[in-house]
């Protein structure tokens, strides 16, 4: 298929939900040459494939019609023209990188990884929080009329915090929700997103990808340097100034004291091997720091 050239450079932030992609998007978008889509737009990516049971859309699902629609709709949502960067961060894209690259073969990808314990704590905490009405209405403004079925699912899912699915829908998440604790499902969600992205990024030209650790992002200026070089940003003063105002260190230990030893043992079985492979170390048990009461 011959792609019609875009007027902008597409850049996608890839990462599990609550890995810091919003923080990174808002930070990078400080630059005036970068146009961001200000929220996740999974409903746009799913257009034409609404009935597929999970978000890991195979590359062959990117038909000519889907490709034309996405290449037109996303830059328009970002108002990205005249050579500027279109910046987008839908977290479900971690499960479908080949699909994303079939639509946008010229894209650059920044893969953000964060300690799974911090991610799981954050996802588990916000899962049951109701979606603000103004946020739902803002997103619904951008729903394609022909995608009304997904819009209906989105509203029904967000109105039922007890049974709703929050974040990327990996293959098997519905079955897991019926048999596992919510905490364990959060662990599986992180693993699926990170492992799938790591696998699929191996086949991407390394010149078009950048790996970033969240912990390095908030603590090492060299990480900002690498992002600026990767995006070819000439004036990074605004980004560095905003970084100094945005960063809040000491937030990644919230998971300590949240769970019982039994819950921690369960998490160790799920996320422990990947944590160690990524260099974060195993899930540790500390009876003085973990609750004795049970939760979801």
UniProtKB/TrEMBL annotation:
Signal peptide start-end: none
Pfam families hit by this protein: Sulfotransfer_3 (PF13469)
The answer on whether this UniProt entry bears the keyword DNA repair reads: no
Q: Which UniProt keywords apply?
A: Transferase
Task: Report if keyword Transferase is assigned.
Answer: yes
Listed GO MF terms:
protein-tyrosine sulfotransferase activity
Q: What is this protein called?
A: Sulfotransferase domain protein
